[in-house]
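quick one, two chains, predict together pls
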Amino acid sequence: NAGVTQTPKFQVLKTGQSMTLQCAQDMNHNSMYWYRQDPGMGLRLIYYSASEGTTDKGEVPNGYNVSRLNKREFSLRLESAAPSQTSVYFCASSEQGWVNEQYFGPGTRLTVT
Amino acid sequence: EDKVVQSPLSLVVHEGDTVTLNCSYEVTNFRSLLWYKQEKKAPTFLFMLTSSGIEKKSGRLSSILDKKELFSILNITATQTGDSAVYLCAVQIQGAQKLVFGQGTRLTINP
């Protein structure tokens, strides 16, 4: 039982490049989330998926897109990376978003130069 | 706008001390408050609080919620170096399937 897994662990991009961050969970959770964490700012919600087939914007969605591929997988895409997107990205899942605690993946450290 | 504020932002104490971390919130429709511990990587769940005045306890850690004054505290007694971490507070909004996080408190325990 791996919990929440994320790939890659580290990534360096040049401004304007695109990439997709992958997230998968094996806990049969319905809800999945993408956060970014910047120094001194805690965790900020980018997008979430309350259930398979639905996605909604969070606090800081600009510059990102998401896909809930199936119940297990939720990907985050940066179409044209900017230095302001340098951050640590966490994926999380919960059984039902408004009932249970969220379980977090190990994070992806992304640097955009 | 929903807001969660933690204080202090940083705290350095000696092993064996007792610490109190604070979390205050202003949200439209409160459902629950959660505490997480973040060491090097992913945050790990500590407590979920939904009712005022009921203390949740796990070993040397305890937490309580005051829904009238809109805050929660996390206490750690007899601190150990392994308690060094960032402690995150988050609030669940009723009817919205998401958490709003505070900035975190960085706790450092010196031997």
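Chain A touches chain B at residues 4, 31, 33, 35, 40-45, 48, 50, 58-59, 90, 96-98, 101-107 (CB under 8 Å).
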